[in-house]
Amino acid sequence: xxxxxxxxxEKWLKIEITKILxxxxxxxxxxxxxxxxVKVTNDLSYxxxxxxxxxxxxxxxxxxxxxxxxxRGFCRxxxxxxxxxxxxxxxxxxxxxxxxxxxxxxxxxxxxxTEKDK
Length: 118
Hints:
The structure is a single chain. The protein has helices spanning about 5-25, 60-70, 70-80, 100-115, and strands at about 35-40, 45-55, 90-95. The protein is of the alpha+beta class. It has a three-stranded mixed sheet.
């Protein structure tokens, strides 16, 4: 069963972290990042922020991943400034390759369909 408090917290974190990265972090590389999901542990200790970058290459993803690791403390500090809760979770950024996987599966299914139709 989904905890409503956790769901609200995850939604709030997704919105606020997006704002922090796009406006307050002042890094132009973060403007192309899309926050796809945020998962918070039950005790609100950790928040895993899933992000995706459209039209990327592996080198660019690696570089932005390092820069996101460097800005974790800044994000947490900014969240603490606007949060009404006592506890602000530690932030972990994780690259979300779900979209790439879905595209790859769709391509395979299309190939199978065209081979079947022949």
